[in-house]
User: Which sequence fits this backbone?
């Protein structure tokens, strides 16, 4: 009966944990954190590649907090041809550290290195990034080619959560750099301005610390209550069982004391060495330290 | 002639490399500070596990040398710099917490959960120092947060938070935190005596009930879920302390628990103590900011002790006779495990030779560890 109740109790706990964790959004890391961050379709006087060409470009951004290898992924300007350009794998430059950028030039010339793709951005008005299988779309953007102005890019702002980021027109493109260029105050600086003497943060934080420990205390108050009841029931059951066991009459007092001590040490975790059991071996010599002759007798004097 | 010139140049060059040629007044002061720490640790036996590595580290860090030889703790590529990485990146504190979790018996806290609130109240020391640092110390909010955590009386937490909020002040904060932890038997008793009456000091608490194995196993799991869901920023510390405790209590990972509680924590303590000590190079350490940090650190310990004791007195107003808490265990809420609990015990025995408070004080003591980790997580979340 007690075992069933214990199982029910644990099931309740696991059900509670399941419900709690079910609402947690688990985010994958790696290439799926990479996003198309900025595109410039018409490049008249913006940045040039290492060959001195002004061309359209797009920028990828690793939004995650671990290094991601964009090598092996596909970029395309045609949704019907997801594997149009495979970014070569194995080049250390395709390893994108956390929160860093990678720039690709798009003027349909693959002979100029891995960062030059085989399409241009002013053909279709679409750009997509697929993972290494070529089937999973990581990110895409559609834009109107005709409305694109020279040296004006489209970019996402990094200061808002990824899911809320929208494409905005950027009069001043920022290749290989953060799009959100307004210097924001840190949270610490904001606190220093609004809470000069630290009163607000003290009240807030102390309240939260108290609430957390209070909840923990309440939970363990009731958990303790539950287990106390369980223990009492278990004890009662044991007492009934013990009554049915005949007394051990042939064990002497020393044996019983040794067993009691061993059990005490075992259950109170005072054993230094983990063992799966313990044994009480009767010594072959039927003497203790009080009666051992080799201890009590004086040693024979030695002649020097 | 050339031969003699070369030899004299060599000797001059050699002399310019020696510590004597590069020594400054600051180096000598810091070496004396290191020696003083060693004296406290070895002769006085105050927190020797911490003060001996830190004290020796201070001496190591203040041996004068010419820059550019990849020797110093702040020089890229030096061995000390590699070891210091664990401090800068906050690797060592969570590992120490793992060991603390594997060593700590939460039974007294589980058997008397209301003692957790004392651990919460004592965290006021953190914010007392935070307010003082913001208002009078001339520190920024992040610096004030890092300094305030000294009041948590928890060295690893102080290092963890200061490495994130104010890396420049980490050496001073760590040394201050560990120094005051060693000085707990000196700082706390006068505050405790001042704020309690003789009658209160004689309160006898009910012995703690025996806690079942199931409760001990559930505690770290529920504790982790609750605290880290509320304060995810505290995950590195809270996750590790509860994990260590689960290893200890689950009964099937005794070897892992033994490793965490013995060799692992010993190794990390050695590395942490030595490198934190070495980070106190005179050039970076001897500033007016360090002096202010030491003053604020002392203040935070006093405020934390007072807050814990006063909270118990306040709490007693709502408790029935026979259930009352001896306010002498209020100081233990500052963590500093187990020294502050020992202070409660010894002071209790001073007034009543049969009133043993140690086990009761261990409750708020370990609650203080959880409380300071939660507070550190909150400060990190608010200020970083």
Assistant:
């Amino acid at each position: 009966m007690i075992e069933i109740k214990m199982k029910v109790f644990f099931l309740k706990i696991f059900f509670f944990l399941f419900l709690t964790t079910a609402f947690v959004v688990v985010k994958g890391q790696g290439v799926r954190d990479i996003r198309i961050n900025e595109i410039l379709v018409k490049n008249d006087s913006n940045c040039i590649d290492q060959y001195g060409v002004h061309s359209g470009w797009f920028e990828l951004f690793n939004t995650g907090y671990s290094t991601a290898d964009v090598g092996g992924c596909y970029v395309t300007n045609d949704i019907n041809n997801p594997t149009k350009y495979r970014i070569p794998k194995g080049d250390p430059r395709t390893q994108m550290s956390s929160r860093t950028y990678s720039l690709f030039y798009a003027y349909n010339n693959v002979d100029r290195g891995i960062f030059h793709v085989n399409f241009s951005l002013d053909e279709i008005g679409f750009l997509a990034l697929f993972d290494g299988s070529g089937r999973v779309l990581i990110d895409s953007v559609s834009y109107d080619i005709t409305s694109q102005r020279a040296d004006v890019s489209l970019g996402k702002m990094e200061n808002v959560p990824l899911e809320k980021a929208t494409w905005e027109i950027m009069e001043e493109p920022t290749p290989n750099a953060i799009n959100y260029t307004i210097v924001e105050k840190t949270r610490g600086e904001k606190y220093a301005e609004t809470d000069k003497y630290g009163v607000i943060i003290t009240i807030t934080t102390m309240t939260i610390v108290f609430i957390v420990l209070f909840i923990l205390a309440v939970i363990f108050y009731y958990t303790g209550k539950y287990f106390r009841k369980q223990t009492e029931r278990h004890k009662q059951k044991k007492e009934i069982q013990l009554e049915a066991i005949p007394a051990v009459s042939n064990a002497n007092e020393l044996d019983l004391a040794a067993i009691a001590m061993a059990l005490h040490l075992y259950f109170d975790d005072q054993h230094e060495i983990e063992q799966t059991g313990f044994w009480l071996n009767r010594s072959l010599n039927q003497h203790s330290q009080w009666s051992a002759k080799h201890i009590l007798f004086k040693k024979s004097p030695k002649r020097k | 002639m050339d031969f003699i010139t070369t030899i004299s140049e060599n000797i001059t060059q050699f002399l310019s490399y020696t510590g004597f040629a590069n020594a400054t007044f600051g180096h000598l002061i810091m070496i004396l500070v290191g020696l003083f720490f060693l004296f406290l640790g070895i002769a006085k036996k105050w927190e020797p596990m911490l003060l001996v590595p830190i004290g020796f580290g201070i001496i190591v860090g203040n041996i004068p040398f010419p820059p550019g030889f990849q020797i110093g703790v702040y020089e890229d590529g030096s061995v000390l710099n590699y070891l210091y990485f664990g401090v800068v990146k906050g690797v060592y504190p969570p590992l120490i917490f793992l060991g603390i979790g594997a060593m700590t018996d939460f039974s007294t806290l589980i058997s008397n959960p209301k003692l957790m609130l004392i651990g919460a109240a004592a965290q006021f020391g953190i914010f007392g120092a935070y307010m003082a640092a913001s208002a009078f110390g001339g520190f920024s909010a992040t610096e004030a947060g890092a300094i305030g955590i000294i009041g948590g009386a928890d060295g690893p937490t102080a290092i963890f938070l200061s490495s994130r909020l104010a890396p420049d002040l980490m050496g001073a904060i760590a040394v201050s935190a560990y120094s005051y932890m060693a000085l707990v038997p000196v700082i706390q008793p006068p505050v405790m005596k001042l704020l309690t009456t003789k009658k209160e000091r004689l309160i006898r608490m009910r012995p703690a009930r025996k806690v079942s194995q199931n409760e001990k196993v559930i505690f770290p799991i529920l504790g982790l879920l609750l605290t880290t869901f509320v304060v995810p920023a505290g995950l590195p510390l809270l996750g590790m302390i509860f994990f260590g405790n689960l290893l200890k209590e689950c009964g099937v990972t005794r070897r892992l628990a033994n490793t965490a509680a013995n060799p692992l924590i010993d190794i990390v303590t050695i590395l942490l103590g030595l490198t934190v000590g070495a980070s106190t190079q005179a050039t970076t350490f001897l500033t007016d900011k360090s002096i202010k940090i030491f003053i604020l650190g002392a203040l935070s310990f006093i405020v934390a002790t007072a807050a814990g004791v006063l909270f118990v007195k306040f709490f007693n107003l709502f408790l029935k006779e026979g259930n009352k808490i001896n306010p002498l265990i209020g100081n233990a809420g500052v963590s500093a495990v187990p020294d502050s609990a020992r202070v409660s015990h010894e002071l209790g025995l001073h007034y009543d030779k049969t009133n043993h408070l140690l086990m009761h004080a261990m409750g708020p003591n370990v609650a203080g560890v959880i409380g300071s980790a939660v507070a550190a997580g909150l400060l990190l979340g608010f200020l970083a």
Q: What stands out?
A: Residues 87-383 of chain B form one domain. Chain B has a mean pLDDT of 90. The first helix of chain B runs from residue 2 to 17. Chain B touches chain A through 51 residues (CB under 8 Å).
